[in-house]
Amino acid sequence: MNYLALDTSRKGTAVGLVVPVTPDPATGKNTLGSVNNLTISDVPTRLVMPSRCTVPALDHTNASMDGATEPATLDLATESKGLPETRTDTAMSELVPEPRPKPAVPMKPVSINSNLLGYIGIDTIIEQMRKKTMKTGFDFNIMVVGQSGLGKSTLVNTLFKSQVSRKASSWNREEKIPKTVEIKAIGHVIEEGGVKMKLTVIDTPGFGDQINNENCWEPIEKYINEQYEKFLKEEVNIARKKRIPDTRVHCCLYFISPTGHSLRPLDLEFMKHLSKVVNIIPVIAKADTMTLEEKSEFKQRVRKELEVNGIEFYPQKEFDEDLEDKTENDKIRQESMPFAVVGSDKEYQVNGKRVLGRKTPWGIIEVENLNHCEFALLRDFVIRTHLQDLKEVTHNIHYETYRAKRLNDNGGLPPGEGLLGTVLPPVPATPCPTAE
Fold it and tell me: Which residue intervals define the domain Septin-type G in the entry (predicted)?
């Protein structure tokens, strides 16, 4: 048996090794022709041994092939019978997976001193936003809840220094107390310093005025969810408005009676149910009826009862974005809440200045004097420091919670509507299978 003579001194690369075969007239057997520059690297790690035949020594010089004879080409990788199949470089490339490119690692942002490169103008975005807000204005919707006679309308009028809430007329014997809680919304446009605010005050007359106040918070909760539903339907419309009217309740001032003892069960039940759907700010009404010691003790007792019953009021702890917000809000939660306030829309002369206050036999209680009440803290909290945050928490937390629940319950569509806003027919009830 003759072996294939290979030159292992040269390491090269050859693809598709093909050896010509010519018939030998003397023996009648096939003989392999000469191969030009055959190297050992052409056959990957395995040497292919041909079948029993006579193989002349391979010439490493340029040997000429006989053109008159038509050689039958024999591929060493496939013609050898009974031997393992030889894999070419092309086959090997198909078996070996290509290395995956490494994902591009984002470069860390490099702080650039703008003074070295000149003024860019990034800080003008604040002025652009201010101009746009001044043109379009913004919405703010505030709800007041509490028993009659606690000064809800007076406080709201004092808060915005205008007649934004109508006072209830004096009650006479011919009028009947409403059997259910009514919802009255009054809208106003207030402009100050070129900024327009569309203010809506939602009053709830009749709350807590019944002998049986069971579930009296349900009409209020229903109204709040209806505003979420209205906004959701406008949002999912195909041809929706450029600016969706926002009637969602951003803030709910809950008025607590100045009993000086503890919260009523009605107070706890209301805040427990509605703290999940709206931003509740507890307020002690008519704080001038209590002494300073009574007021301080009552505030601590209210905070303790809210904590024991698991009631979270605004600002909620989990919504603090950074350490600065946490420090500021912790001070409000631990010291100011609930705000003990006094409301009045009447002006009096005090030390040559016109002030809002309540006149008593022993003097004038100034509404905006921190030594008399905490109205100024409430005003600064609701309007001057947290108004935008009230709107954002309403949109990003309460509305998103309602939106996710409604879309999941209705397969991604508003309840009762199809893709194009058409009312879907009711789904027929599936009959229960019989025992048979």
Answer: 136-409
